[in-house]
Write a structure and sequence with these properties.
Layout (H helix, E strand, L loop, with lengths): L20 E4 L7 E6 L5 E8 L16 E8 L2 E8 L5 H14 L9 H16 L10 H18 L5 H7 L11
Antiparallel strand pairs: 1-2, 2-3, 3-5, 4-5
Helix pairs in contact: 1-2
């Protein structure tokens, strides 16, 4: 089965922080969803909502690892932005974005789109896990790091120098480690 092309592949990032150059997701969709890239080249799904729409309190915004959800009022509209911060997960993010777009397809009033988006993001949060405060690690990540550091100190450092040990400790295909 062929993988669909990334909707962000041919987009140019915005040159101004806080703005995006966007392409409409589906011209037949009753609501305004757009593919965009941030100035930092982070893939985004934008949703244009009616102006002066009240945004949820920070504690009511779903928190997903590597994904930021933020809101702004701009040009008589309210905007919801869902942004991926690690392009290695672009395929999964695309699936999430399509789910958000499709979940809102049958929503009649534009004011009702945001609650649908938030409800679906909450479901994804439950499936994928909540993002923690930056700088903190999950228990699983802590245990993995402890295991790696223990192995390094117990078996590798006796054979190699510290710099050799750390720089030689790479994941398959040379992916960086948690630490």
């Amino acid at each position: 089965m062929n993988k669909p092309a990334s909707p962000w592949g041919n987009l140019r990032p915005s040159t101004e922080p806080g703005t995006s150059l966007a392409v409409r997701v589906d011209t037949e969709h009753p609501h305004d969803f757009f593919w965009a890239l941030s100035a930092q080249q982070h893939p985004q799904l934008l949703c244009r909502l009616p102006g002066c729409l009240p945004f949820p309190a920070a504690e009511n915004i779903p928190s997903l690892k590597l994904i930021q959800v933020h809101f702004q009022h701009l040009d008589a509209h309210s905007w919801c932005t869902v942004e991926l911060h690690d392009r290695a997960h672009e395929d999964n993010f695309h699936t999430l974005c399509i789910a958000l777009v499709e979940a809102s397809r049958k929503v009649i009033k534009s004011e009702a789109v945001l609650p649908v988006i938030l409800r679906h993001l909450n479901r994804w949060q439950k499936l994928l896990g909540r993002s923690l405060t930056p700088g903190f690690m999950t228990l699983h990540e802590q245990l993995g790091l402890f295991g790696e550091l223990y192995f390094l100190s117990a078996h590798v450092l006796s054979q190699f120098t510290l710099p050799e040990s750390v720089f030689g400790w790479v994941a398959p295909q040379e992916h960086p480690q948690d630490f």
